[in-house]
């Protein structure tokens, strides 16, 4: 489910749990995108231009685009700047991981096994992979029967 931040004036952040009757996979992916966008805005300080979340079995694959500030783009023009940028973004992600996981657990109500992230200084794209303790696709299928 694609979620374009530029078109949203107000993000309503409601708690949705996996298994709520009638919630589709796409709706859950959209809610997860909202939660991750909230993390980017509140913790990192700027929101993405576009965010897309995919549920695959027990994984969340998140593609976040348009998150580099102009100064970060400038910094990434040389090898030393890229190294510094990666160090800072890695440290920020590690320090904010607990908050991100809390936001995600509020949406899906499962235990998070691991969280991984990398960002491309070339494209300004960030990929986040989150594994959880349950197969979300199976949970959705069972509850929406």
Characterization of the model:
By secondary structure, the chain is of the alpha+beta class. 23% of the residues are buried. Residues 1-16 have low confidence and may be disordered. The protein is built from 4 helices and 5 strands; from the N terminus they run βαββααββα. The longest helix is centred in the middle third of the chain and has 30 residues, at 79-108. A 5-stranded antiparallel β-sheet has the order 1-2-3-5-4.
Keywords:
145 residues; alpha+beta; Muramoyl-pentapeptide Carboxypeptidase, domain 2; five-stranded antiparallel beta sheet; 5 strands; 23% strand; elongated; disordered N terminus
Helices and strands in order:
Blueprint: E1 2-4, H1 25-44, E2 50-56, E3 59-65, H2 70-75, H3 79-108, E4 112-119, E5 125-132, H4 136-143
Antiparallel strand pairs: 1-2, 2-3, 3-5, 4-5
Helix pairs in contact: 1-3
Beta content: 15-25%
**C-alpha termini separation:** 21 Å
CATH topology label: Muramoyl-pentapeptide Carboxypeptidase, domain 2
The number of domains is 1
Say what oligomer this is.
Answer: single chain
At CATH's second level, what is the architecture? 2-Layer Sandwich
Q: Spatial order of the strands in the main sheet?
A: 1-2-3-5-4
> From the alpha-carbon coordinates, what is the Rg to the nearest angstrom?
16 Å
Number of helices: 4
Question: Spans of 5+ residues with little confidence (pLDDT < 50)?
Answer: 1-16
How confident is the prediction overall: mean pLDDT?
A: 85
Please provide the count of β strands: 5
Spell out the helices and strands N to C: EHEEHHEEH
Q: Largest sheet, if any? A: 5 strands, antiparallel
- Amount of helix: 40-55%
The level 1 CATH classification is: Alpha Beta
Structural class: alpha+beta
Overall, the morphology is elongated
């Amino acid at each position: 489910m694609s979620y374009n931040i530029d078109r949203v004036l107000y993000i309503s952040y409601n708690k949705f749990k996996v298994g709520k009757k009638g919630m589709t996979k796409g709706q859950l992916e959209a809610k997860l995108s909202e939660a991750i966008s909230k993390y980017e805005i509140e913790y990192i300080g700027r929101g993405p231009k576009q965010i897309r979340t995919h549920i695959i079995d027990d994984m969340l694959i998140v593609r976040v685009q348009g998150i580099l500030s102009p100064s970060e783009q400038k910094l990434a023009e040389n090898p030393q700047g890229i190294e510094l940028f990666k160090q800072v973004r890695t440290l920020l992600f590690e320090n904010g991981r607990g908050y991100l996981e809390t936001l995600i657990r509020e949406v899906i109500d499962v235990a998070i096994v691991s969280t991984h992230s990398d960002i491309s200084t070339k494209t300004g794209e960030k990929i986040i992979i989150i594994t959880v303790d349950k197969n979300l696709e199976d949970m959705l299928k069972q509850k929406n029967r």
